[in-house]
Amino acid sequence: MLPGRVLDVSALIDIAVAKTKYARAVAATCLSSGGGICVPATALAAVYSIAPLSTQVELFELVSTPGVTVDDFTAGKVGDIAEILDGSRDVTAGHVIWCARHTRWPILTDRGEQLVVYDPHVTIDALP
Predict the structure, then answer these.
(1) Cβ partners under 8 Å of residue 124, min gap 6
(2) How many whole angstroms separate alpha carbon 54 and alpha carbon 93?
(3) Which residues partner with 38 through β-bridges?
């Protein structure tokens, strides 16, 4: 079950600052086994908005790695993501769910209980 992961905000932060090393280990294993990493652009923007420059450099290196795809928030996805949100304003959550549905990969996050409210069928890989 380790072909890839969709990274939520908390996973990106964990990778950038090596808080637990779990997210880095999962990402490295996915990439070395021929899988991939999907980074929703909305999650990346959320982290960039609060991250110091050194952390931004770490994130840039991550998203520049072969096998890592930044999924853009495009006009064609707006309707689908709005439907996922069903009145919520957490656009990042909606985008993360959209990416998980389309890649069929688990979401690496510390807010699994919140995300499964949007879609109980997504798989969560919980950060410690």
Answers:
(1) 106, 107, 109, 112, 115, 116
(2) 25
(3) 6, 69
Residue type, 51: A
- For 74-121, how does the pLDDT look when each residue is reduced to its tens digit (9 = 90+)? 999 999 999 999 999 999 999 999 999 999 999 999 999 999 999 999
Q: What is the Cα–Cα distance from 35 to 38, expressed in whole angstroms?
A: 10
Contacts of 97 (CB under 8 A, 6+ apart): 81, 84, 107, 115, 118, 119, 122
E-state strands within the chain: 4-7, 36-40, 68-71, 107-109, 124-126
74 C-beta neighbours (distance < 10 Å), count = 9
